[in-house]
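Please, structure for the following, as tokens.
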Amino acid sequence: MQDANASTANVTTANVNAKARIGRADAETCWSCHGPVAPEAVFCDICDAVQPPGQRDHFARLGLDVGFEIDAATLDRRYFDSQRRLHPDRFAARTARERALSQQQATAVNEAYETLKDPLKRADYLVHLWGAGVLPEGCNLVADQELLTESLELREALAEAETIAEVALLETRAAADIRACVGDLAGVFADGEIEAACRLTTRLKYLRKLAQECRIRRARLGDRGGDGGTGGRG
């Protein structure tokens, strides 16, 4: 009886300490021990039970500040650390509910990582976090005459390219434009310029698409024996 009382006292003390750390206003309840847990907690500090993934944004899920510029090494480290903590082998002896929750947490972490590691997906996600929309890939760009003109000119140049060398020049230009666009996105996101961020994200979408089409065009020219020089036109 004394051991049971001591155990109850330990749990009560742990609950009080947890509430003090978390703050009553922000505390949620662990499904397993019913103690308080922080909304962003993956595991309960009291009983170590894995928690449901919740509705956190991708940045919070990986312990990062919300923003376009991300240190790639930090992102990788946070991701792989989370994956180690959520590895299925750790939950083999736990309840079916915990195994299911650990899989849900791992899936949420994977989605966050895949989104944040890619500049285009990260930009698209950020503008949607801000409550703004971005034109979908492949859409008509008539809403922005400058973007429309640039897109048409580059696609026309690609359609007219008859040698691998000509396509390679366009591919090089697209790659340079992509790097510049990513740099510009970092600036407008830092300044909170939502309209500029939407426009640049849309531009990055079609530049990525153009680069992909260049690779396909170059491969097709190679398959049919297109030379790498300036020949090919009469």
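The chain is about 60% helix and 0% strand. Residues 4-25, 137-142, 229-234 have pLDDT under 50 and may be disordered.
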